[in-house]
Amino acid sequence: MGLTSVYLSSTLLLDAAPRSRRLSTISPLSDKEIIQKHVEAAKAKERPSTAATVKGFPLAQANSPILNGRPFATRSTPVHIYHDVFTTFTSIYNDRAREIPLCTQEEIFELCQASSELYQTGEKSRGEDKRFKTLLPIYTRMLDESMPTVVADDSQADAVITTRTSDGLLLLRGLFEAKNEIGAGGSDPNIQGCLSYIKYWSMDVVCLCLPLSTPD
Question: How many CA atoms lie within 13 A of 51 on its CB side?
Answer without folding.
Answer: 27
